[in-house]
């Protein structure tokens, strides 16, 4: 079977050697973790524990809470708050994190650790590790973790499979996005064969929302603007307060917005507690939203990317418009 990811053999060997040689391993994923970040983190944490390692697993953003749609994941007992994370771990493994700043308050630990193993699939990855298990063509970071666990000789059990499957289904948009190859389906089949309840995972991840979410979704869609192939909307802190939902709850709103047939690019600007707008972008292929994100200090992939914008909504969306008028558009195929 063709592997679902490609990394040089020598790089795999280095990563496996580091993890075999150390009993204490620190694990961190990106701030504001999504299904791929959490699934990758927990799968390797569970796998290393089964090998008898001492693991500490965390991410560097507050509040340190697992988003409700991922609260079903196995291995949550392995998580600890960033305040208790070792300042200088002998080995640090990072997941789904394209650059050191995306580690938030744990960025310092990356600088102080003996070795850093980067497990990621962002095109914008800065290769900040001692060992970089990075494949920009991989559909999800959990695919790299799946291969790494195999190479470490960890048997695939149901708990590990549930974590890996969650990352795979979230980052492929339920196996819809371009990066979904035959090899991705082969991995999914292997994960399903462990007996995981994929229907329950889908229900938890996509189909369980508070009523306030449905109401807020209505408001966000009502507010949407369509202009020159761009459809965009926004959510303010006042909206979140009014409907009693958090920023994590509206992760899926962009999938509704991007159904707009007249638009190539969909954007949602979500106001954070400091007042700045967090920008989520999706492209159907005409524009490279990853390039727009990088130009604005963020990152991501060609078809899905994000950055932290300004406290002003108009100037934030102006950044996206400027990006679309520039090289991102001419980079289109
Ligand atoms: P999202 O819109 O939050 O689902 O993010 C889409 C993709 O862009 C994901 O792969 C994120 O990891 C990446 N991304 C989003 N925001 C940022 C950021 N501020 N910096 C780097 N990458 C980001
Ligand atoms: Mn992610
Ligand atoms: Mn990912």
List keywords for this structure.
333 residues, alpha/beta, six-stranded mixed sheet, 13 helices, 39% helix, binds manganese (II) ion
Subunit organisation of the chains = single chain
Largest beta-sheet details: 6 strands, mixed
Strands, count: 11
Overall shape: it is globular
Helices and strands: which structural class?
alpha/beta
Order of helices and strands: HEHEEHEEHHHHHEEHHEEHEEHH
Please give the count of helices. Answer: 13
In words, what does this structure look like?
It is a single chain. The protein is of the alpha/beta class. The protein has 13 helices and 11 strands. The protein has helices at 9-21, 35-50, 107-112, 141-152, 158-171, 182-192, 198-206, 211-222, 237-243, 253-257, 289-295, 313-325, 327-330; strands at 24-29, 54-59, 91-95, 115-120, 131-134, 225-227, 230-235, 265-271, 277-283, 299-300, 304-308. The protein has a 6-stranded mixed sheet with strand order 6-7-8-9-11-10. Strands 2-1-3-4-5 form a 5-stranded parallel sheet. Helix 3 (107-112) links the parallel strand 3 (91-95) and strand 4. Helix 5 packs antiparallel against helix 6 (182-192), helix 5 (158-171) packs across helix 7 and helix 11 packs across helix 12 (313-325). The chain is globular. One manganese (II) ion (MN) binds at residues 36, 96, 121, 140-141, 171. One manganese (II) ion binds at residues 30, 34, 36-37, 96.
What's the topology here?
Layout: H1 9-21, E1 24-29, H2 35-50, E2 54-59, E3 91-95, H3 107-112, E4 115-120, E5 131-134, H4 141-152, H5 158-171, H6 182-192, H7 198-206, H8 211-222, E6 225-227, E7 230-235, H9 237-243, H10 253-257, E8 265-271, E9 277-283, H11 289-295, E10 299-300, E11 304-308, H12 313-325, H13 327-330
Parallel strand pairs: 1-2, 1-3, 3-4, 4-5, 7-8
Antiparallel strand pairs: 6-7, 8-9, 9-11, 10-11
Helix pairs in contact: 2-4, 2-5, 4-5, 5-6, 5-7, 11-12
Bound molecules: adenosine monophosphate and manganese (II) ion (MN) (2 copies).
One manganese (II) ion (MN) binds at residues 30, 34, 36-37, 96.
């Amino acid at each position: 079977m063709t592997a679902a990811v490609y990394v040089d053999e020598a790089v795999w060997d280095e990563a496996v050697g580091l993890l075999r040689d150390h009993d204490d391993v620190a694990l961190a994923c990106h701030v504001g973790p999504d299904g791929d970040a959490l699934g990758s983190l927990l799968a390797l944490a569970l796998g290393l524990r089964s090998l008898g390692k001492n693991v500490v697993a965390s991410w560097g953003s507050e509040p340190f809470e697992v988003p409700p749609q991922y609260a079903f994941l196995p291995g949550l007992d392995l998580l600890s708050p960033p305040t208790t994370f070792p300042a200088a771990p002998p080995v640090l493994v990072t997941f789904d994190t394209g650059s050191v700043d995306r580690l938030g308050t744990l960025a310092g630990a990356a600088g102080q650790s003996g070795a850093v193993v980067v497990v990621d699939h962002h095109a914008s990855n800065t290769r900040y590790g001692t060992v970089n298990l990075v494949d920009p063509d991989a559909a999800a970071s959990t695919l790299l973790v799946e291969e790494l666990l195999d190479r470490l000789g960890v048997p695939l059990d149901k708990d590990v499979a549930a974590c890996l499957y969650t990352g795979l289904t979230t980052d492929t948009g339920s196996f819809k996005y371009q990066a979904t190859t035959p090899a991705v389906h082969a991995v999914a089949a292997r994960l399903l064969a462990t007996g995981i309840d994929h229907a329950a995972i889908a229900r938890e991840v996509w189909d369980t929302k508070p009523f306030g979410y449905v109401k807020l979704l209505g408001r966000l869609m009502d507010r949407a603007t369509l202009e020159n192939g761009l459809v965009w909307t926004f959510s303010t802190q006042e909206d979140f307060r009014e409907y009693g939902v958090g920023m994590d709850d509206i992760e899926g709103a962009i999938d509704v917005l991007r159904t707009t047939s007249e638009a190539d690019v969909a954007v949602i600007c979500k106001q954070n507690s400091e007042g700045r707008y967090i920008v989520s972008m999706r492209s159907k292929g005409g524009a490279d939203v990853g390039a727009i994100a990088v130009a604005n200090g963020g990152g991501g992939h060609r078809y899905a990317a994000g950055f932290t914008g300004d406290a002003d909504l108009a100037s934030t969306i102006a950044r996206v418009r400027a990006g679309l008028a520039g090289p991102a558009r001419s980079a289109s195929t």
